[in-house]
Specification:
disordered C terminus; 2 domains; 567 residues; ABC transporter transmembrane region fold; Rossmann fold
């Protein structure tokens, strides 16, 4: 079965066929110089015919013009192929990067650079050089037709240059891979630095972090230097050898002329033709750094797409409206075999709320990530109305699930856009209803621009509590059946907590389900069931008052219940 990248390339086959045909035409017209010299020396000069020289010159000029037009047209086609492939992969790459990041793999974000590398190579002279290589045997055959000595000389030169290309591939592979790894580390360090700039600045960590940055930069400089030196060395050797070969072919031709086995025209034409025959190999060596980078980027993209296949069209299952069940789920950290949850089971019906409590590190956030479909359980299943939550693709899950993560993330745009999840077709009344349900409508109305107020990345321009309440409105937008809230009151004041409790009651009254992770006990008064986690296992589950009684708690307004086995 062809990979996704291979299928996209196959979709451009007509363009590549056109490039191959144009390359054929360009290489045929590249014989103009050799034929012109051969004719001038062997036909025009002996005949002394000026009209023949003028006619031959005009034909040569026409051929050169056609060759230039063909090469320009070929280059434009390749440029557009690169852009078409990038456009076809852009959204797909973004989707795969987000899915990886949601599972804790942030390294995939560096594959944006890989996509640029693929597009840049396909739009460069690299592919054109590869299309020219198959014409090497034809040029060699013409050289052999001039004289076997000339053909053998050019063949020997071609073998030397091919050996240089093989050596270039062997020597550049390791530095190129090291360079990509160092660039990935630098990108990750930059993202972390920008995300935690306040901590770095306030705690005087600038110099320490700058030293880490400098270490990574030194590795990048070193790897770049190795690649540049290698490319320069082999490229220079290649060019010198090609010039030496061209002169040597001229000397061989002169020897054959002296021996009356060739003409002066053959001598000059052979020298020109040898340079043209070996030019694709020379250009390949000069482009080898880009070729290696393209191959590595292509391999990483292919691996990313294989590990994150596009979501297929599935049978349309009705949206859930009855019950959420977790059936003995076991969950491991992404890219790890360390289980954070084991044998977790419970059920919550429509119109009910579940409070999830437990000590730090007990697996609460891992549970809610699994419930909303971000993490896949190694065993067991999360079901809505009996169907696995993964039965709905991510687009449909957005209509089913409202999620407020522990770390609130808003995006650059208006408040209305953030609440509407940037849906361009969102109705203003739905945005306002979500804000009212979250109890944030009055707050937004007091802003100078109201719902059109602009906020920056990560909610810049809003306080922590305001950002959390806007994010709550986003989770409630569209009246999702399942609303999952991970510590939604961590930044809220008394007014915000009251609005949160009213929002939970509103979801329950319309027949939705709420799952809420709580450290502060006040919100537990709104839940119907409590699930107590410790060490990744269920320690208690049942009706709120029964669980509180078993744990020796007097009321939901007391301290958050902890499992007795917790340390």
């Amino acid at each position: 079965m062809k990979s996704e990248l291979a299928r996209i390339l196959l979709g451009c086959r007509n363009a590549f066929i056109a490039v191959a045909l144009l390359s054929g035409g360009a290489n045929i017209f590249a014989l103009t110089g050799a034929i012109f010299m051969l004719t001038v020396y062997d036909r025009v000069i002996p005949s002394g015919s000026v009209p023949s020289l003028i006619a031959l010159g005009l034909m040569g000029l026409t051929a050169y013009g056609i060759q230039g037009f063909v090469e320009i047209f070929r280059s434009r086609i390749l440029t557009r192929v690169g852009l078409v492939i990038k456009e076809a992969l852009s959204s797909r790459s973004y989707d795969a990067i987000v899915r990886n990041a949601a599972r804790g793999n942030y390294r995939a974000s560096n594959l944006v650079r890989d996509l640029d590398t693929v597009q840049g190579f396909l739009s460069s002279l690299g592919p054109a050089t590869l299309f020219d290589l198959p014409w090497l045997p034809i040029f060699l055959a013409i050289c052999y037709s001039f004289h076997p000595f000339i053909g053998a000389t050019v063949t020997a030169g071609a073998l030397v240059l091919v050996s240089l290309a093989v050596l270039s591939n062997a020597l550049s592979r390791s530095p190129s891979e090291n360079l990509n790894e160092s660039q990935t580390q630098r990108a990750s360090l930059l993202a972390a630095t920008q995300a935690h700039a306040e901590t770095i600045q306030a705690m005087g960590m600038n110099m320490a972090m700058a030293e880490q940055w400098a270490n990574v930069d030194r590795n990048i400089i070193s790897d770049n230097l190795k690649l540049a030196d290698l490319t320069s060395l082999l490229g220079s050797i290649s060019r010198v050898l090609r010039m030496v070969l061209q002169s040597f072919v001229l000397a061989v031709g002169a020897f054959l002329v002296i021996q009356h086995e060739a003409t002066g025209g053959i001598m000059i034409a052979s020298s020109i033709l040898s340079a043209r025959a070996l030019s694709p190999i020379d250009q390949s060596i000069a482009q080898w750094k880009n070729i290696v980078a393209f191959r590595q980027s292509w391999r990483r993209l292919d691996e990313l797409y294989r590990n994150n296949p596009a979501e297929p069209d599935q049978f349309s299952v009705p949206l859930p409206h009855r019950v959420l069940t977790c059936e003995r789920i076991a969950v491991a950290y992404p890219n790890s075999r360390n289980f954070v949850l084991r044998d977790v089971s419970f059920a919550v019906k429509a119109g009910e709320a579940l409070g999830v409590v437990g000590p730090t590190g007990s697996g609460k956030s891992s549970l809610v990530r699994t419930i909303v479909g971000l993490w896949r359980p190694e065993m067991g299943a999360v079901r809505l109305d009996g169907q696995p939550i993964t039965r709905w693709n991510s687009q449909l899950r957005g209509r089913i699930v409202g999620y407020l993560p522990q770390s609130v993330a808003l995006f650059s745009g208006t408040i209305a856009e953030n609440i509407a999840r940037f849906d361009p077709d969102a109705r203003p009344e739905d945005i306002v209803n979500a804000a009212k349900t979250a109890g944030v409508h009055e707050l937004i109305s007091h802003f100078p621009e109201g719902y059109d107020s602009l906020i920056s990345e990560s909610g810049g321009g809003l306080s922590g509590g305001q950002s959390q309440r806007v994010a709550l409105a986003r989770a409630l937008f569209g009246d999702p059946f399942l609303v999952v809230l991970d510590e939604p009151n961590s930044n809220l004041d008394t007014e915000g907590e009251a609005a949160l409790q009213l929002a939970i009651q509103s979801v329950k009254q319309r027949g939705g389900i709420v799952v809420i992770v709580a450290h502060r006990p006040s919100v537990l008064s709104t839940v119907d069931h409590i699930l107590v986690l410790a060490d990744g296992r269920v320690r208690n589950f049942g009706a709120r008052d029964e669980v509180m009684q078993r744990l020796g708690q007097r009321s939901p307004q007391g301290r958050v219940p902890q499992a007795r086995s917790a340390t």
